[in-house]
Design goal:
This protein is mainly α and about 130 residues long. The protein has helices at about 1-5, 30-35, 45-60, 65-130, and strands at about 15, 20. It has a domain at about 1-10 and about 20-60. About 70% of the residues lie in helices and about 5% in strands. A two-stranded antiparallel sheet has the order 1-2. A hairpin with a 2-residue loop joins β1 (about 15) and β2 (about 20). It is rod-shaped and about 130 Å long.
Amino acid sequence: MARAIHSRPNMISKDTQGEREERIVDIYASPESLRDHHPDYVGTEDSYMTLRTVRSQSSDAGSPLRCLTRAVVVLLGLLSLILLAGLFGIVVQYKTILEKTLSMDRDMEQFNQRLKNLTEERDALLRQQGCPSP
């Protein structure tokens, strides 16, 4: 087992139709195997897990794919916020136009009622004076 852990990984690249393929070998060791093969090992399982977590986070944080994914997520978030603000602006504008339209409808009804009343008064005055109605 110790020989398998300490052996050098095969990092030879293969050319496949002009493309280069890299092989990456991950070696995992448990705290028990470290204790069994290394008498100087003094760490605890918690420190091993913490070290492993830190290593995995640091290797993932710098990968180009992860950075690209993060950039895409940020851009999509910003685009969503811009669209939401635009939608909010349209709703506010629609509400304002609707209120103005309703106000104009009420004013128009009042003007029509006033015109009807004035027409009736004119007809009544013309009848009183004995003039024929127009």
